[in-house]
Amino acid sequence: MNLKKYFIRVLHRLQKGPGYTYKELLVWYCDNTNTHGPKRIIREGPKKKFIWFFLTLLFASLVFWQWGILITTYLSYSVSSSLSIGFKTMKFPAVTVCNASPFKYSKVRHLLRELDELTEAALERILQSKNRDATSALPLNSSETPSQTLNLRLWNQIPLVLIDESDPERPVIIDLFETDESGSGAQPNNSSPALVNVTSEAKKQKVAMKLCSRKALPNCIYRNFTSAAQAVTEWYILQSTSIFAKIPRNETVEMGYQPEDMILACLYGAEPCSYRNFTPIYHPDHGNCYIFNWGKDEEALFSSNPGAEFGLKLILDISQQDYIPYLTSTAGARLMLHEQRSFPFLKDLGIYAMSGTETSIGVLVDELERMGFPYSDCTMNGSDVPVKNLYNEYNTTYSIQACLRSCFQAQMFETCGCGHYLFPLPEGVSYCNSEDDPDWAYCYSSLRSSIGHRQFCIDSCKETCNDIQYKMTISMADWPSEASEEFQYMQHPLTYERDQSRNATLDRNGIIKLNIYFQEYNYRTISESAATTIVWLLSSLGGQFGFWMGGSVLCLIEFGEIIIDFLWITVIKISNWGKGLKQKRARAQYPDAPPTVSELVEAHINL
Amino acid sequence: MAPPYHGDTREFSMAPAKKIKAKIKKTLPVTGPQAPTVSELMHWYCMNTNTHGCRRIVVSRGRLRKFIWILLTLSAVGLILWQCAELIMSYYTASVSVTVQFQKLPFPAVTICNINPYKYSAMKEHLSELDKETKNALETLYGFSEGKSKVRRDAADWNSTGRNMQSKLLEKIPLLKFDDLFKKTATEILSGHKRKIEGSAFHQGSSMVNIGEPQDVVGFQLCDPNNSSDCAVYIFSSGVNAIQEWYKLHYMNIMAQIPLEMKVNMGYSAEDLLLTCFFDGISCDSRNFTPFHHPLYGNCYTFNSGENGTILTTSTGGSEYGLQVVLYVEEADYNPFLVTSTGAKIIVHDQDEYPFIEDIGTEIETAMATSIGMHFTRSHKLSQPYSDCTETGNDIPVANLYNKSYSLQICLHSCFQRAMVDTCGCAQYAQPLPPGAEYCNYKKYPNWMYCYYKLHEKFVKEQLGCQQICKESCSFKEWTLTTSLAQWPSSVSEDWMLRVLSWDKRQKINKMLNKTDLANLVVFYKDLNERFISENPANNLVILLSNFGGQLGLWMSCSMVCVIEIIEVFFIDSFSIVMRRRWQKMKKWWNDRKAPRPQEPPQVNAPAKEGHDNPVCTDEDLPTFNTALRLPLPQENHMPRTPPPNYSTLQLNAAFTDQLPDTLEGRSH
Known about the structure:
- The complex is a heterodimer of chains A (607) and B (669).
- Chain A is of the alpha+beta class and 607 residues long.
- Helices cover 39% and strands 21% of the residues of chain A.
- Chain A has 3 domains: 1-27 and 563-589, no CATH class; 84-98 and 258-529, Acid-sensing ion channels like domains (Acid-sensing ion channels like fold), CATH 2.60.470; 105-130 and 153-176 and 203-255, no CATH class.
- In chain A, the strands form 4 sheets. In chain A, strands 1, 9, 10, 14, 17, 18 and 19 form a 7-stranded mixed sheet that branches. In chain A, strands 11-12-3-15-16 form a 5-stranded antiparallel sheet.
- In chain A, α2 packs antiparallel against α16 and α5 runs antiparallel to α7 (228-244).
- Chain A starts with a helix and ends with a helix.
- Chain B is built from 22 helices and 22 strands.
- In chain B, the strands form 5 sheets. In chain B, strands 1, 10, 11, 15, 18, 21 and 22 form a 7-stranded mixed sheet that branches. In chain B, strands 6-5-4-8-9-7 form a 6-stranded mixed sheet.
- Chain B is elongated and about 125 Å long.
- Chain B starts with a helix and ends with a helix.
- The interface between A and B is large, with 116 and 101 residues.
């Protein structure tokens, strides 16, 4: 009903034309609006009118300009950070302890026997070469060298060579176990020209690793080393990796250090704990690792007091005598503090603890809480990262290290067709070993030194929004003390507890004491909050509008109303004008003035 | 409006414009800027202004209410002023933001030094005398002997070796054993002479540390050679400290006279120091290290110094991808008196930074693997006016003696060196030479030590003004280090490791290495997260203005327009009114003097009163003179603004056309 009435009124208005002009409307608006400027325009004399008109325009444009700035500020999503420091009851960090050596030598000796003999012989060769004339080939002295008994199968896969550079133009490459002497046909090649300059004046002889691809053309690269020690270590790691890759997981776990052998004593606060409180995890770098307070199956432990008395105290035995001699030259325990339910990446974030010492570690949890998209480019749980997290098999949370390793493993599978032993396997892929994939070392070596591949992984992985760093204050002291009574006193009970034997099997080279505790200030949290919220934006917009013109949202609505009125007038005017045009046109058919009645009558009569 | 020439004719027979004016004045309420009195103007202002309080004052009935409103309005004004002042004062505050970015990181420069500066075997000839003297001193003090005879060699023996100067120097500043601090007597340890101590100043511990028995006190005395009564005596609670300080003093004197090339030759070469080097999975060697001569640590080597224009980057975290070096520190060739610890010193720094290894170095133990994990943090502060820091150091009046970018430490050292050159005439050995100066030595500057010690004391007590001149730099890079140690080589790998490393070293020395001569060092990025802590201005002009606007709007609904209005009304209009009234008074006074006859009251006031009583202005929004002419308000003033305008009434046929038919005529002139 109302609608109909309304339309009728609209129609009437259309027919009658607008009741007022643009000027009237404008004047009325100026007089009645709540913004401050326009009123002055119509109230003042011509000079002031002009000034006020100009001022109003200026202020209006200022308002719009500043609004623009405010809105762009808002859309930049800046954040403000707040820092808090103090002590509070916090989750005790998960503590991963490993042995630097992944396996017990006594248990893997049968696997490594061939390789060790080979290494021994190669070392002999290298050391012999010292006094020889370098240009002459190393003679295979059959009476001395054990090469007949050696199985050169492993050697031939990845041989070590000696590069003689006494003549820098023609380096002579000598395979340690072969008599054939290849000239400079194969170019010693290294991926980083910044680091290695082939024409060396410092060392005349260097050891290099020969990595060959047998797939396509026999294509070999030589990985140069300035130090023979480094070369032998790297070579041994490659070879042993290939050997261990073939062994199924449950057997490798057997070969490592068992929890009861490694963790001798444990005390958390005042409560005793034992190796049973540790979650075992198989870490490819370090063999069996044990994680305290991982929070997987049970609730995480809290610590509500600072100081060593309330922290974790451990006594470990690393049995250094059982280390694999060529694989790890560094002896000690590897440990790392990390978040609950996260995978320990010991190579990146771990620290060493030295045998024969007591290591005290005061912990400060340095946390950075960030806001996700659009404030920062970080990921909350890794679900939006295009890399499949292979560490999901450990049921751990996303971390940047996990992403990078997964990315590398994916690339490894893509280029080499097999997975690297140090990283988890994607589905349906097996670990690389020299028998099934003879090219893998070549392939791995080139992939590892490729900058492009690394950059790809850096670009695809995102850091987590909550970044926790455990800041450690490490101090060390000799332990057990030299006083022999005390050492005996420590040694015997611990040995007895472990082996039920009266003979002391522990020695200073093996045992480590660890104290891990919260510092007096145990957290430092930097948290982000949005610097510009919508409330901030509105109040700033209001402030600007108010400051220049005393306006508010209602003023904007008023203005909108006037514009509608304007349009309405225009519509009416156009419709009237159209009507007028029609009439004119209708009139235009008769060029003369319309005939008067008399004329009509006349015409009629004339007819 | 009326053309200007009409105004000139008003004195004489009524021009038509004048007539009109008079007529208008009679009928119209004359208010606004043209109001005749200031109070009229104020009234008009209060009624018409857009601010809220003022109108209430005028409109309210009753004195109390008026008073309250005046109070409220004034307090609102006060609040606005206060709050705006607060806003302005807090304009220069900074907010801190922390961003973390995961990216390829530049590897820092790593400077490695042997703790022992020079090979003792090479230094021996320069130091033989000093060492002999020191040994003797130790023997005398502690009855310690090296199995040699305790017989002191006499001075003549030294002189025959042809180094008169040094022995003279040693005689000049001998070690003293203080027999009685109160009687001020001391024995020269070497010669056994008793002597009286003239100096009054006792330093280094006498005030802070309680020294047990005064008989045990050892020290030395520095005197101003020109004035032997002006002496400073340095005593130490421990003879070891005293001897070391004393040894260092003489050592620096001797070193200052040796030319740089010779010193470099006496130090360790890069091949000596570095056994193996491995970075990011690739071998490196001594050529990747840039030599750098440190006055106290001899030859140091900087990895990745960026000297050849490229700075290495790390694109993977973890120990395998960092810098791994095995250092060879030749323990047997150490100077027994100068350094008492064994190992190397390293510092992680930016390529542009000077490595202050003596101040902030990390020591590396031998027979150990030291693994250093790094986190990278970059920070930037805002400079003036937010905080007192310097961006480039160019605004600091201290010349940078180091060839590196500015830092606070560089400034302090440079400042001290400058003061040293100004006061003592020569430069201190541990810092670089300013242009035109030379290092202090006893030959040329016999009193430099005394001067140096005095100056250094002043410097420490902040009397030199260096601490005031030097500002911290605004941006800095920091590598947080986590250092941990492990045994290396492990007992089972020791054998082959040492054999192969000896083979590596074969060009230099032909012997089996000992593990106490070796140190393994790994420096790596723990993760590639770069933390960037930066200060940003918390305010800018836009935000300040919107805060102003918020304050003005909150308390008074005021705006910039109101402020201009206030300026207009209170300053321009009131001023003009006051002036006008002055002018009229003057005119009246002039007219009165000219014609003392009583005259009509001045015309101006009358119409104003009339205007007020005019029935037209029952409306609260009084039309002004101008608006009245042009745009009269509708007559039904009871609700002047509310309904949409009755547009037909806005025609110019308003009230005055019939009353003033001659207005139009006058204008059409």
